[in-house]
Amino acid sequence: MTKPLNVIELDCSACDKKYDPSIEQHLCTCGKPLLARYDLRRAAATLALESLKTRLRTLWRYAEVLPNDAPVSLGEGMTALIHVGRLGASMGLQRLYVKDEGLNPTGSFKARGMTTAVSRAKQLGARVLAAPTAGNAGGALAAYAAAAGLPAVIVMPADTPAANVMECQAFGAQVVKLNGLISDCGKYVAEHKDREGWYDVSTLKEPYRVEGKKTMGYELWEQFGGKLPDVILYPTGGGVGLIGMCKAFDEMQEMGWIGTDRPRMVVVQAQGCAPIVRAWEAHQNSAAFFQNAATIASGLRVPGPLGDVLILNMLRQTKGKALTVTDEEMLQAGRELAALEGVFAAPEGAATVIATRKLAASGWLQPEETVVLFNTGTGYKYTEVWQRALQ
Ligand SMILES: *Cc1c(COP(=O)(O)O)cnc(C)c1O
Ligand SMILES: [Zn+2]
């Protein structure tokens, strides 16, 4: 270690165990994810709206609240926040925004998590990076591994969109295709990693992907001029972005930037894979495995999310909501967003459009509220899906 790490410790998200961040860490012995803790008083001394103005236009601008390794960066973060006036008006909403994460390297917000996870893994001496993926995480890991000069193994369902397979191959990663879901791919990585010497970069199984994804929360605050929106809609697979943004809001409160108010967080899932919505509707604290998961929104095909307890907690704390949409609705909404606003979304992002329409119609969203929906990926990577829908 050359300089002291910004991260002062890793805390279990479920029990009170703490871990040393200066060595490789994955899950807590209780099986739950670890979260990075910083000296936020020290961070707040230099990190402020004013000081951000002159910084790098990547997510590494929030350096004080990120692991301070030499960044393996491809220009991720600081994506556009677009006021979608016509779409909003069609639902009676005056302040509807799209945070367009499709503009990230490799076309999805998975780049955010991978820049921090791969930077830290490299610093810790990882030799081979491995992860299961529903699609975009694999592409992002393969790209950042290439940028880091490290080999990667990507394990994906055989029916993952072609663009995801091709990008992984182009980035020089080893691609393993399995007949199954991301949960089966996760098992494969878990079973092989010790023997093969792989560093497991699975969602929430190392502490730093959340750190990259939390910068979406910091960016919203910065892009709204030091304020947060009233409502955030998020297409939820593993829920890393939700967990990350809420962590960011807690850090901001500790730094004195915001009070106790939080945006109401909305989980949007596909009808064919909705473990969190099911648990939410049944007033449960954890989610059961969702059998026979199927949806065109590959990023939402996560039947057993590891962060279920954290996500459900966050929904209660922020007075949020969880709802499903159908694949048909996603495709229709995606065409609407593209034609009305010029944003070509992944089906996952399109899911938040129809969810917003439903919540506006029911009165859960008020006309003057500031509402942000996350387009988590570009539509350009889903050619099979859009080809069918646009014929
Ligand atoms: C991975 C992914 C999601 C789900 O993200 P989580 O933070 O794991 O819930 C949503 N949309 C797209 C396009 C994705 O690639
Ligand atoms: Zn624990």
Describe the structure.
The protein has 391 residues and is an alpha/beta fold. It has a domain at 81-108 and 210-390: Rossmann fold (3-Layer(aba) Sandwich). Helix content is 39%, strand content 16%. The protein is built from 14 helices and 13 strands. It has a six-stranded mixed sheet, with helices on both faces. Helix 6 links the parallel strand 7 (152-157) and strand 8. Helix 5 (136-148) packs parallel to helix 6 (162-170). The N and C termini lie far apart (56 Å).
Key structural traits:
single chain, 391 residues, alpha/beta, Rossmann fold, four-stranded parallel beta sheet, 39% helix, globular
Write the layout of secondary structure elements.
Blueprint: E1 7-12, E2 18-19, E3 34-38, H1 40-46, H2 49-52, E4 81-83, H3 85-89, E5 95-100, H4 110-123, E6 128-132, H5 136-148, E7 152-157, H6 162-170, E8 174-178, H7 182-196, E9 198-200, H8 209-223, E10 231-235, H9 240-254, E11 264-270, H10 275-281, H11 308-317, E12 321-325, H12 327-341, H13 347-361, E13 370-375, H14 383-390
Parallel strand pairs: 5-13, 6-7, 6-9, 7-8, 10-11, 10-13, 11-12
Antiparallel strand pairs: 1-2, 1-3, 4-5
Bound molecules: pyridoxal-5'-phosphate (PLP) and zinc ion (ZN).
